[in-house]
Write a structure and sequence with these properties.
This is Aldo/keto reductase. By secondary structure, this protein is of the alpha/beta class. The protein has 11 helices and 10 strands.
Length: 282
Amino acid sequence: MKITDINGRVQLNNGLDMPYLGLGVYKTKDGEEVRNAIHYALKAGYRHIDTASFYKNEEGVGAAIIESGIAREEIFITSKVWNDDQGYEGTLEAIDESLEKLKMDYLDLYLIHWPVPDTLNETWRAMEEIYKSGKVKAIGLCNCVEHQMDTVIENGSIKPMLLQNEFHPKLLQQNMLDFCAKNNIQYEGWSPLMRGQILDNNIIKNIAEKYGKSTAQVVLRWDLQKGVITIPKSVHQDRIEQNAAIFDFELSEVEVKQIDSLDNDKRTGAHPDHFMEHFADK
């Protein structure tokens, strides 16, 4: 990944250019809260917004894009098909519902939110049809380990363009980084700041002091230097702006390895092999 500035992009395996920094809107309330967050982000230079049907804020996301006055084609929009909507017919219906809520003709990226075992192949078949129809410019998955990705690649006719997994200094999943690199699938990380749990780490604090940056900025810069697209979530204007101010310094190889060494396979979310039980308990 060539890191330049907030306008920088990476090319997916189908040739589509995707911004490597975006705003995540998980748990951002629909209406004024999500609209304001997106306005702050767009004003700061972000051109990538990551939402999902499960977030229940697609209407607000779409309204904010329209209100911004920025041309639709300049903003990269991601959404996801939720577990209950998966399967062939359900997925075909889900994309139309998302587009209606967003008031958009197409999405830049559409993802399978979790790999529901019984319907994964049929869901991916629908994703391929959606991609061929032009309703989305790229397709991929979230929250997968190798065997789930292998299933999709072996049974499908179109290789996923992106995998979005939980990714932060305590959950490196080097095997998945290597898998995606080998298969030319772009890696994207959610929960890059570990829901705030990583920000008091002394190693990261020391690096932050050296560069006059916050620990969050160091972690987000580390994401990019690992070749991982990052989508930090915030609703606060100062934090959104701060999260984008990561292009005036560069971590050394030693510092990247120091942060790598924090990996202990700790998750803040469900494991891809056990998410069905996780959500059944909610």
